[in-house]
Amino acid sequence: MKKILLLILPALMLVSCTEIIKESARKQLAATAEITDIELKGSTIDIGIVCDGCEFKNDEFIYYYTFNEEIIPYEALKENEMMLREEFKRDLQMEAIAGDEFYSLLKDVDGKITYHYTGKNTGRTFIITLKMPN
């Protein structure tokens, strides 16, 4: 019985430590989302794109944008979805490799980043979600 307990105890400690790390990362990401939301809300990100804010929920960091469909047609976004996804993924990998703490925290919770675009005129949405690279 002692041998079994000695074998199980390290595994239980590892699970406990992992959950503590995840919970700490979640709290830091939630705080980052609050600050980022205040800093970015209402700012112009690119021609025809305004940031509406961001939030962190369910291990997902979500950026919300409104895009001017007269400048960036919805159809153009859909047609270039794969290119945009690859560009975002490349940027994400570069930031993660650079050791950015934000990406490290997202990795700790096995999180995702979502870019949620809503058309200003039609309200149609365009969403790209990326999982953190390992």
Q: How is this structure best summarized?
A:
The chain is an alpha+beta fold and 134 residues long.
Primary descriptors:
alpha+beta; five-stranded mixed beta sheet; 134 residues
Provide an overview of this structure.
The chain is α+β, with helices and mostly antiparallel strands and 134 residues long. 52% of the residues lie in helices and 26% in strands. The chain has helices at residues 2-40, 74-79, 81-97, 101-108; strands spanning 44-46, 49-57, 60-67, 112-119, 125-131. A five-stranded mixed beta sheet has the order 1-2-3-4-5. Strand 4 and strand 5 form a beta hairpin. Helix 1 (2-40) packs across helix 4 (101-108).
Shape estimate? globular
Radius of gyration: 19 Å
Distance between the termini: 38 Å
Q: What order do the SSEs take from the amino end to the carboxyl end, as H and E?
A: HEEEHHHEE
Largest sheet: 5 strands, mixed
Q: Poorly predicted ranges (pLDDT <50, ≥5 residues)?
A: none
Estimate percent helicity: 40-55%
Q: What average pLDDT do the residues reach?
A: 84
Going across the biggest sheet, name each strand in turn. Answer: 1-2-3-4-5
Strand content: 25-35%
Structural class: alpha+beta
Number of helices: 4
Give the quaternary arrangement of the chains.
Answer: single chain
Strand tally: 5
